[in-house]
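seq:
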Amino acid sequence: MRSFLEKLKGNYSFIKLVVVHSAYLGATGNLGNADLLLAGTQSLVDRFRFEELKPELFYHYFGEEILTQDLNNKESDYELTFLGTSGYGKGYMHTERCFLLRKLIEESKLELWLHEIEYSGKNLG
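struct:
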């Protein structure tokens, strides 16, 4: 029986490359059929390698070490950018990102392009 990824590539000839990004551990059964497997944490890289897969580490947001970086980039129109969701209202797994972004907003010239869902009754203080 062919996996979903095999069917996807087989049924749609215009698909040239299947890239999978995994940020949370789940079933790994057919991830080996991806052309490129991106793992969102080092622990996932280790786990996928244990499963004899070939992942690349690709964080889905920057870590706290960004606070100690020199952000004065002369080669760019932007000092620091973020594209995605802040994590606001998405539960405890996203809290660290939300507060890190807030700190960067206060301490840098962070430019944000956010895709957010409206939540009511939430207050970050």
